[in-house]
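In response to the reviewer comment on reproducibility (Comment 2.3), we provide here a single inverse folding case reported in full, input and output, so that an independent group could reproduce the run without further information from us. The structure tokens appear first.
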């Protein structure tokens, strides 16, 4: 009964938020939720069996399946995945994803359909216990990274993937990419194909709540960059939330990637050229919330640019195969 009420709420929310023109848009809109999935398995990785909904013009959110989502992705010119950050309810995730969808959809190529996936994951909100909430959420990102890697490994390698991760959603993004590259995360790994398929992945990390050295070789997410064609990272050196990142687990923690950028990036070797930066310090100043990022013309231009690159990558790949 509760799930039915939740679905009806999402239908009403979507119908109110989306413009009438969506009925003719050459893009499919999906929501993948891991909110009911366990945070860890008992001695083995948890089973990736998310709840999935597809937006149907005129009907709103319709219950679907992971298999249907993956089949639809095979027909798309590119897939966009949006992963939210902390303190985000299911309703908030839907609103945030829908708003970003509307901002990016008018710039999608009409000649070929695109796929947009809202990744909805459970985040703790323990009220005044801010530090405890941050710890719970950071631990959950390991499992979410595993779930993301499971999804990416099953998606068609021929379809370019564009991932936008905000705050701890950025940590899920790089954790998933690290696992996709054959890494281990919190004792979890995913089955690797031999030979591994060549994938086209572009990622954007907004206000990345990740220790600033984790993407370097040998670090917890050290294989993430090997899996992308391009990685764009925003930096705000006065972010009021990220400035507390070193204290989440006590004194002596690393500063956040979204606040300092990647130190010693020369250690990436040839892969250093994959990483680009956008300094938003003067734009956002002491603001961290998602509403400020989605309202920033610089951020939207960045996302549109990376989306365009994914489409170009698909077109070039098809020409090469011919």
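Designed residues, in position order:
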């Amino acid at each position: 009964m509760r799930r039915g009420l939740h679905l009806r709420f999402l239908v009403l929310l979507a119908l109110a938020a989306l413009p009438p023109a969506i009925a003719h848009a050459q893009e499919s809109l999906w929501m993948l939720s891991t909110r009911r999935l366990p945070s860890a398995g008992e001695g083995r990785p948890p089973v990736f069996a998310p709840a999935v909904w597809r937006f149907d013009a005129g009907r709103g959110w319709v219950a679907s399946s992971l298999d249907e989502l993956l089949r639809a992705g095979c027909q798309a010119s590119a897939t966009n995945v949006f992963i939210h950050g902390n303190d985000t309810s299911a309703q908030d995730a839907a609103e945030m994803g829908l708003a970003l969808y509307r901002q990016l959809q008018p710039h999608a190529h009409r000649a070929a359909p695109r796929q947009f996936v809202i990744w909805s994951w459970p985040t703790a909100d323990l009220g005044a216990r801010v530090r405890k909430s941050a710890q719970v959420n950071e631990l959950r990102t390991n499992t979410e990274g595993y779930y993301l890697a499971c999804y990416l490994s099953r998606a068609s390698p021929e379809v370019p993937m564009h991932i936008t991760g905000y705050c701890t959603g950025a940590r899920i993004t790089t954790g998933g990419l690290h696992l996709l590259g054959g890494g281990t995360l919190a004792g979890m790994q995913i089955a690797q194909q031999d030979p591994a398929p060549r994938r086209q992945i572009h990622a954007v990390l907004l206000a990345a709540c990740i220790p600033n050295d984790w993407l370097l070789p040998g670090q917890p997410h050290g294989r993430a960059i090997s899996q992308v064609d391009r990685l764009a990272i925003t930096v705000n050196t006065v972010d009021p939330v990220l400035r507390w990142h070193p204290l989440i687990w006590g004194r002596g923690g690393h500063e956040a990637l979204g606040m300092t950028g990647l130190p010693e990036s020369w250690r990436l070797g040839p892969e250093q050229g994959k990483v680009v930066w956008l300094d938003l310090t003067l734009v956002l100043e002491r603001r961290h919330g998602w509403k400020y990022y989605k309202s920033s013309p610089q951020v939207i231009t960045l996302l549109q640019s990376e989306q365009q690159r994914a489409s170009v990558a698909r077109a070039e790949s098809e020409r090469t195969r011919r």
